[in-house]
Specification:
393 residues, Glycosyltransferase, 2 domains, three-stranded antiparallel beta sheet, 14 strands
């Protein structure tokens, strides 16, 4: 990618982030009466449900704080982060120290799940807010939450398993993936070597267990002993977006460690995932793929979701930046053109989240229980910063 194209993309991503996406959320999602953020936004930004997803509160706090910390110290971004942080601390936790998944507008508990993803994004939120606000209490909360997450993720029995462990014990790619991402975020603001330890172990698990060069794939679910379980749907399921997101976490770890062997493996993961996940008929990334080409059982398998495309946009830019390999830039242009040509809404702003296989809009929502101000603005922000680096490599 030549310097002129890099400069053009950097300005485009900056403008999309700061003049389209973030203004959409600031204008429509802030709940000034009860605190926190509305998540359920229609195409035009109007609120269609006032219940609040706790993990999206954490994601929102992190996003606004990170903008404040890395782009410009705008008071509106710090105020937005504070609005979400205070709601999260006041209403996100149950009496046992675990977090809820969904609450009412005024913070009364609705749903509590066995997963620890609410805690993951709360830890990231606390770390980002601590840096933005100079709040030592928030930093300590981030530390405590991270220790809790590691305990939940690594101690057998701490989280109720999805499958009866007496019959089948499994490993999920999502666990080392979120441990790696969370450790990377917290060590930006806290020098504790524990983050390096956890990040290293998580990255190594992704690389040595879930990544299979002989199969040219990163698998989502393994047997507990690390073996493949190709006689099951779960064991054959490939989530291209998840694999690509994990790949750029690995590239960040490679830069941190100064280890180019990790970069090469991350490039492999991106390439395999695009080869198996790109829809050859309509373009765009499929949501799920059966590794052996058997019938997918997830009824949404052929939908085109916004977030795998945002992860691919940044991952391919980073891959091209670190390797200089031409295919990375060529694939980036393909993903960029398809994503902005189908997800972007020039009339009301932001992106649609869910498309039919042929790229037509499945639902006009801009925000829901799963979609908030995170994947798209994060990819735009990271791409903007990366393209500002004067020397690739």
């Amino acid at each position: 990618m030549n310097q002129a194209r890099r400069a053009q993309l950097r300005e485009f991503y900056r403008e999309t982030l700061l003049e389209d996406v973030i203004p959409f959320w600031l204008a429509n999602s802030l709940d000034e009466q009860y605190g926190g953020y509305f998540n359920m936004l229609d195409r035009d930004g109007s609120v269609y449900d006032t219940d609040k997803a706790i993990w999206l509160q954490g994601r929102g706090v992190w996003m606004y704080a990170t903008l404040y910390n890395t782009v410009e110290r705008r008071a509106e971004w710090l105020d937005a982060a504070r609005l979400g942080y205070r709601f999260l601390m006041a209403h996100g936790f149950d009496s046992d120290g675990r977090m809820f998944f969904q609450v009412t507008r005024d913070g009364r508990p609705l749903i509590k799940r066995r997963y620890f993803f609410s805690e993951v994004f709360a830890a990231m939120a606390c770390a980002g807010y601590a840096q933005a606000a100079g709040d030592n209490e928030a930093l300590q909360r981030a530390r405590d939450l991270f220790r809790q997450i590691v305990d939940l993720a690594t101690t057998p029995g701490r989280v109720t398993p999805k499958v009866n462990p007496a019959t089948r014990r499994t490993l999920s790619h999502a666990v080392p993936m979120v441990l790696l991402a969370t450790a990377q975020e917290l060590r930006r603001v806290d020098p504790d070597p524990f983050y390096d330890q956890v990040a290293g172990q998580a990255a190594d698990q992704i690389l040595t267990l879930f990544t299979r060069p002989d199969k040219r794939a990163l698998f989502e679910t393994l047997n507990a002993d690390g073996s493949l379980m190709l006689d099951t749907v779960a064991g054959r399921t490939i989530n291209p977006g998840h694999a690509i997101e994990s790949a750029w976490f690995l590239m960040h770890e490679a830069r941190y460690r100064g280890d180019r062997t990790i970069i090469q493996r991350a490039l492999d993961i991106i390439r395999w995932s695009l080869e198996i996940g790109w829809d050859k008929d309509y373009g765009g990334l499929l949501y799920f793929v059966d590794y052996e080409g058997k019938p997918p059982t997830q009824l949404e398998w052929d939908q085109k979701l916004w977030w795998p495309h945002t992860e691919a946009l940044y991952a391919l830019l980073l891959a091209e930046h670190l390797s200089g390999e031409a295919w990375c830039g060529e694939w980036h242009e393909r993903v960029h053109d398809w994503a902005f040509g189908h997800f972007a809404d020039p009339e009301y702003g932001e992106w649609y989240g869910y498309l039919h296989r042929d790229g037509t809009v499945l639902t006009p929502l801009k925000g829901g229980v799963w979609k908030g101000p995170f994947h798209l603005p994060r990819a735009l922000l990271l791409s903007y910063h990366l393209l500002g680096e004067t020397q690739p490599g």
